[in-house]
Amino acid sequence: MDAALSDALRAARYMYVTTYGEGGKAGTVPTWLWVHDGAVYFTTRRDSLKARRIRKTGRVTVHVGTVDGPSFEGRAEWVDERPDLETALLSAYRRKYRLTVPLFMGRWIRKRLADQISVLIRITPLPTRR
Fold first, then answer.
1. How much helix, strand and coil, in percent to the nearest 5, is found in the chain?
2. What pLDDT was estimated at residue 104?
3. How many CA atoms lie within 13 A of 80 on its CB side?
4. 3-state secondary structure (DSSP) of residue 13
5. Distance, CA of 130 to CA of 57 (rounded, Å)
6. Banded pLDDT at 94 (limits 50, 70, 90)
7. Which pTM value belongs to this model?
């Protein structure tokens, strides 16, 4: 991930993730984000359309900050049984989303991950073609 994109991701409050069905049909949704070790993470319900599409194809396009912000193509995957990453994500969310996470969302996200209602998703940016 280049430095400008990494900086934009760290500063952004949202990213817009486009997932693709097996037939190529696309859908875009906003989500919170955490940048860690060259990848971008977020959580979602396991039964959500984006989670199911990620599980099947792994193909995503990410727009940073706004639906027409800087973008990159990526490979997304489910990350199970990584409580260390889940804890780090929640800690990062508490710092980045100061009011929402400590007041309500932190416990909710942790419980949904523990109960396997939600899943941690890792997006690895693909190399850019020149």
1. 35, 35, 30
2. 63
3. 8
4. coil
5. 24
6. confident
7. 0.88
